[in-house]
Amino acid sequence: MSRVVLFSTSTCSWCRRAKQYLKEKRVPFKEIDVGRDPEAARDLVRKTGQTGVPVLKIGSKWIVGFDRPRIEHELERLQ
């Protein structure tokens, strides 16, 4: 399993920004489109209580929204 997972939808502009950011930083990640995967959407709500995206899981930490400082902090911890 990837150490970085991005939960997104195809219509979410913040999801596109998060994806672009990870690509620019050359961070390998797995993307899960919760708009196309209802089971993943239910699982995300159970684990985070959130229905909105983007949500990133970096290592064991969950980050709701495109919170660049928290994302950078957690990515540094992975190294």
Automatic annotation (TrEMBL):
GO terms for biological process: cell redox homeostasis. The keyword Oxidoreductase does not apply. One of its GO terms (molecular function) is electron transfer activity. Residues 4-62 form the Glutaredoxin domain. Keywords: Plasmid. CDD domains: NrdH (cd02976). This is Glutaredoxin domain-containing protein. InterPro entries: Glutaredoxin, Grx-like_ET, Thioredoxin-like_sf.
